[in-house]
Amino acid sequence: MKLQKVLPRIHGYLSNLNTSTPLCYTTRLQHDKINVNEHRAKVMARGLPEKKPLPGVKKIILVASGKGGVGKTTTAVNLACAMKVIEPNKEIGLLDADVFGPSVPIMMNISGEPMLNDNHLIEPLINYGVKCMSMGLLVAGENAVVWRGLMVMQALERLTRHVAWGPLDCLVVDTPPGTGDTHLSLAQNLPIDGAIVVTTPQSAALQVTKRGLNMFEKLKVPIIGFVENMSHAICKNCGTRNFIFGNETKQMAEQMGLEIIESFEVDPDMSECINSGKPAIYALPDSIHAEKYRQLANKVFKYLSSKDQKEAIAK
After folding, report:
1. pLDDT under 50: residue ranges of the chain
2. Strands 233-234, 241-242: parallel, antiparallel or unpaired by DSSP?
3. How far is C-alpha 220 from the chain's CA centre?
4. Predicted TM-score (pTM) above 0.70
């Protein structure tokens, strides 16, 4: 019965459009267009979301990459641990913002469902002295996260503002590959102090990395510099450096006016560190990689200190 009642109305409406009401219909369209323009003007007047700091978190550093599989999470994990090692009195946090492919729980050897405190905030899990939170801790087992954009943003909101991070001197955020909603949301809602861009020397990786740099430039996120992974391999017999993936990172860094703040060669032992859940900074403390991660952490601390000084002078 409802379908029968609706159809005559539709036919009557269509017939009226062809005869007696073209002027009224046109007037209504013009009126609707005015309403849309007024609504659009109001939305634009609001501007971007206000950046609100995370309670108790002093500094936020993003670790990003345009392309996946370049060792971004390895860099984020070892950077966070190295910062804690060289400054043991500072509180360091590590956020795994890759909702679809969280790897931090494996690399940091953390598991189990986080607890809620009396303020209904999620308590981050701690290992190696670093506070950690990841979607991998909130999803059971090997279940896949199959969500649309809005749900991802809600999850990111929970991982940032519904976690008892404070007090923290620095939060290292491991972002997903690419230039998607996660980066946009983080940059527009949080006061980001700087981003480290991880890449490998291949042309394909560098081209995608350049897109990521352009994104951060548009979002006005300062770039600390490049970290180059898999820069070369060293022959165990003769010690010769083999640039198996090319050697184009330096050229692009110069073109973009950025610095390669650290470069890491291929090392089979790093794979074992990842699989065992023990970062190189702890598993191989005397290795070249561990020393370079300590140097990277020092450079980040110096960058943050210099940024504070410049902001104090500007005030």
Report:
1. 1-21, 44
2. antiparallel
3. 15
4. yes
